[in-house]
């Protein structure tokens, strides 16, 4: 299979394609084949641009800094005047930041200068005030100064016309400041990605109401709300649905008409009240629906009309794991951002871990640094995928590859920081 030529029709003809037990990496690659970034662009205020995605390269309209200025409080001098071991210069004025010295500085003269102030004409160096002695208008300066010292030059940070930010850049606080520093009040960004979410399950009740026997609170929608807010998506919250095939069908069709992406939780496995896979078959197209991973075995991915559909498992930890391992990257691509490399490294596992070969496992880990600087990781204990508190205590995944069996205490494992 090559990167760009895959379609749903050709999937079935691939020998290594098993939608019932797909390896994690293959699932990631497959999803990628179906993603094309949104193209609609809008112009918004830089003030409102937090966590939006740049739709065009930003070229600097100016030099930064725009003028040569002093990086110290002291005296602007002509280096040629500092040939002796003790040099007496005549102070002829002062240059303040935003209010420079208008005149020209001649031989034997200097100007008192503040940090950020423009270097007066004729000067080529700044001597820190700590290295000068002032007696009235006479400034005495010793030897050992370099030409050009303590001056920040025009364009030293950014040259006019240079690409400062590239299309696809996520706008974080630093980019907001950078745009403002170049004088931009507005910026061109991709429109927000519309993501519809809903939970499924007859047992689900909303927080703030009382639980009857057998009921639990719908937490997945809150987790998803947080995850999607963090990504800067426009969330279409469709609430919590009963395990009723027609109710879910109607929700999926409505979501597909309104959203770029649909994310559901629950009902994705093979129980009698699990309709996600059947419905995706009936009204959309299934790319895969079961992964060789734990937690998160039932993860459906496919398309309904033009919308991408992720049917996440119901277990709260599995929701987070599948979102972080598959959905987030896909959403970044759809938002027009460049996919980010997963930051992963090795640590020594201080707990033994039970594992059977056959699936990739994402265990919740707590990473610490030992006194000798080595990275140590322990599991959060019981790894049942219903235990959301373990996810809150963890700061990383311990990623155990498919073929891995039991992990002995003291062995090296791969970890992924949250
Ligand atoms: P399911 O995938 O629908 O079989 O659900 C698997 C497990 O996750 C069951 O124990 C469900 O009760 C639980 N679950 C499903 N949806 C949610 C939700 N929105 N919030 C919390 N737990 C859920
Ligand atoms: Mg269910």
Low-confidence region ranges: 1-5
* Termini gap: 31 Å
Beta strand %? 25-35%
Structure class: alpha/beta
Ligands bound to this protein structure: adenosine monophosphate, magnesium ion
Strand order of the largest sheet: 7-4-6-5-9-8
Q: Mean of residue pLDDT?
A: 94
State the major sheet: 6 strands, mixed
- Computed over alpha carbons, the radius of gyration is 31 Å
Short précis:
The chain has 418 residues and is of the alpha/beta class. It is built from 8 helices and 26 strands. The longest helix is centred in the last third of the chain and has 19 residues, at 316-334.
Would you spell out the secondary-structure blueprint of this structure?
Blueprint: H1 8-11, H2 24-33, E1 41-45, E2 58-59, E3 69-70, E4 74-77, E5 86-95, E6 109-113, E7 125-128, E8 132-135, E9 138-142, E10 151-152, E11 163-165, H3 173-181, E12 186-190, E13 194-200, E14 204-205, E15 216-217, H4 220-231, E16 234-241, H5 245-258, E17 261-265, H6 276-283, E18 285-288, E19 293-294, E20 300-304, E21 307-312, H7 316-334, E22 344-349, E23 360-369, E24 375-379, H8 388-393, E25 396-400, E26 412-417
Bound molecules: adenosine monophosphate and magnesium ion.
